[in-house]
Amino acid sequence: MSTKKKIGILGASGYTGAELVRLLLRHPKVDLVLLTADRRAGQAMGDVFPQFAPYELPTLVSIDSVDWTTIGLDLVFCALPHATTQKVLQEVLAKAPETKVVDLSADFRLEDAAAYAKWYGHEHHALELQKEAVYGLVEIYRRDIKKARLIANPGCYTSCAILPLVPLLKARAIETDEIVIDAKSGMTGAGRSAKEEMLFSEVSEGFNAYGVGHHRHMAELDQEFSKAAGKEVVVSFTPHLLPQNRGIFSTIYVRGRRGKTAQDLHEVLVKQYEKEPFVHILPFGKTPHSRHVRGSNMTFIGVAADRIPGRAIIVSTLDNLTKGASGQAVQNMNLVLGFAETLGIDQPAMFP
């Protein structure tokens, strides 16, 4: 009798859904038994993503066709758009309350319902579920995640900034009002839907900022930085679009507090992450390239001294589809299902 856990993916035809399939195919403790994609219902996963053609996978079905009372999933990944997710997960957990959920949308990341309404343009429609959601950045909330039923997988930009900055804020090592985050994302961060501005000829050989002054991920940054600092923190954050498929690359500018040097900040991060399998702190003065983490669940962080006394430059990079989304989701799954945290996601980066 198989002892593998039964897993489903809602929204399997998007980039994060496909990345989940890629990672879970080699996971020794789970069976993929449900893949949904409403517009692709009835199709084989190999028809939507030809790289999966050699593998035996469930046929894609619509969410409405799933009988949650009988399917018996141990855990479901939700890779649906925000707002849609609230309605779907209310139904899933009402009919199958023992099912664990890792939600890759933004719907349950913000603890403040008013903040959600402000940044997403509508009221939150699943407030009871929101109250039990745990923010799914493992390195920060590991203990809470292990006991959770609903995990809100963090955003890719936010993970890349929170991992280097939260330890420094908790240590009171940096000034809270002088943080600048200059961030860049690969094209897959914009999703798989057909959009004119995402055509090859529109983005190739170019580079641009977007969401300037009002990107939705700012709400997550405000929330997590303020909790770490014990007071309100509002940072400058500007995202940019890169003409490459994968990756988040953040250059972060900070000032040391009470005489803390760049080397002091580096030491805080080394101590914080020395036993973490998916965060690597480079030697002082060294900075990473986005290609160093491509296809892996790693975050690479470097710290260098600025020429301005008291200031430091932190460079952080991760793959937006792995540690920034699906890899982190599997890391969360491993925790809540009692597996080794690195199981199925310990592959090194793809290079070149």
Give an account of the 3D structure.
Helix content is 32%, strand content 19%. Strand 3 (75-78), helix 4 (84-95) and strand 4 (100-103) form a beta-alpha-beta unit. The chain has two domains: 5-132, 3-Layer(aba) Sandwich (Rossmann fold), CATH 3.40.50.720; 157-320, Dihydrodipicolinate Reductase, domain 2 (2-Layer Sandwich). The protein has a seven-stranded mixed sheet with strand order 8-9-7-10-13-12-11. Strands 2-1-3-4-6-5 form a six-stranded parallel sheet, with helices on one face. It has twelve helices and 13 strands. It is α/β, with parallel strands linked by helices. The mean pLDDT is 94.
Chart the SSEs and their pairings.
Elements: E1 5-10, H1 15-24, E2 30-36, H2 45-48, H3 68-71, E3 75-78, H4 84-95, E4 100-103, H5 113-120, H6 127-132, E5 134-135, H7 138-146, E6 150-152, H8 156-170, E7 180-185, H9 200-203, E8 208-209, H10 217-229, E9 236-241, E10 248-255, H11 262-273, E11 279-281, E12 299-305, E13 311-318, H12 322-336
| Structural class by sheet pairing and helices | alpha/beta
Please state roughly what percent of the residues sit in beta strands, choosing from under 5%, 5-15%, 15-25%, 25-35%, 35-45% or over 45%.
15-25%
CATH architectural label of the largest domain: 2-Layer Sandwich
pLDDT under 50 segments (min length 5)?
Answer: none
Radius of gyration: 20 Å
Distance between the termini: 42 Å
Got a strand count?
Answer: 13
Give the H and E element order.
EHEHHEHEHHEHEHEHEHEEHEEEH
Whole-number mean pLDDT? 94
Count helical runs.
12
Strand order of the largest sheet: 8-9-7-10-13-12-11
Name the quaternary structure: single chain
CATH-defined topology of the largest domain: Dihydrodipicolinate Reductase, domain 2
CATH classification class of the largest domain: Alpha Beta
Shape: globular
Family: Belongs to the NAGSA dehydrogenase family. Type 1 subfamily.
Domain Semialdehyde dehydrogenase NAD-binding: 6-148
Protein name: N-acetyl-gamma-glutamyl-phosphate reductase
Organism: Tardiphaga robiniae
